[in-house]
Amino acid sequence: QTGLMTDVRSRPSVHAVVARKLKLDTLLAGGIAGAAARTLTSPLDRVKILMQTQYLSSGGQADQYRSIWQSLVKVYREDGMRGYWRGNGANCVRVVPYSATQFVTFDHTKTWILEATGRDPNDKLHIPERLACGALAGMMASAATHPLDVVRTRMAVQPELTGIFHTLATLWTEGGVTALYKGLGPTLASLAPFVAINFASYDTIKNFFYPNDSDRPSTIGSLFMGGSAGIIAQTACYPLDTVRRRMQMKGKNYTSTLNAIVTISRVEGAAALYKGIWANTLKVAPNNAIRFMVFEQLKGSKVFAALFGY
């Protein structure tokens, strides 16, 4: 009997087993969703980065990328179809762990808050709590994958950099670890609020249309909710994203995020902080829509149910 009791105590609880499966479920679904969304919207992401950083890369000359369509045509003429997906390998290497970390951290933090406050697991979080969960998810994901984000930016604007490893080696030669984490401050400053607003918006909209956790969002529903959340978040945070890209670029050194905002506004005008925002809107809305849709459909699929045993 003692041996039986010891064996029972040594076994993980049903709750622990289910929780572990759901974490793996969320991790895998988040990574796949991020890669799918990023690949499908890569051309607009390339255009957005070119429009944001052209002042530095052109030495302050007149803008070469003036509109979304003109920029898409210019990229095609110079690099062909491959130009639209330049740097997408680095994108996917980065975005899989980045997206997976976001979803897992957000879900885990939501659960932790409910447990810490003694509430029922099925209770809904308040909006400030959702924002806090999203901010933590953004910071965790950004800190873990920032070097690859720098690589992505440099590859998008410098054709002489031929691949991920070549770019990493170049950055290491330029400044070691410091170069790999250049712009981390504004990255956290821009992405933490973006992810916070994005996830909080999606979660709030989802709870409105699907109040029961057992309700699985439809494909159209998750596309709409994801696109709406992305537009809300990027509109609020775009100037900080521009500053982040500028500080990652080899060129003029800004002493701080505030200094970068002031300098850009004084030299190029305040509108420069919003360069590429329409390309970004056209990218963020479908990217976010696809990411949340793929995530929701994977988590609710028979394949995942069979794979994770639920």
From TrEMBL:
UniProt repeat feature Solcar, residue ranges: 21-112, 129-208, 217-301
Protein name: ADP,ATP carrier protein
Gene Ontology biological process terms from the UniProt entry: transmembrane transport
Membrane topology: Multi-pass membrane protein
One protein family per Pfam: Mito_carr
Originating species: Hemiselmis tepida
Major site of localization recorded for this protein: membrane
Record field: transmembrane: none
GO CC entries: membrane
Annotated compartments: Membrane
Keywords, ordered alphabetically: Membrane, Repeat, Transmembrane, Transport
UniProt cross-references to PROSITE patterns, sorted A to Z: SOLCAR
Protein family membership: Belongs to the mitochondrial carrier (TC 2.A.29) family.
PANTHER family, sorted: SOLUTE CARRIER FAMILY 25
Domain of life of the native organism: Eukaryota
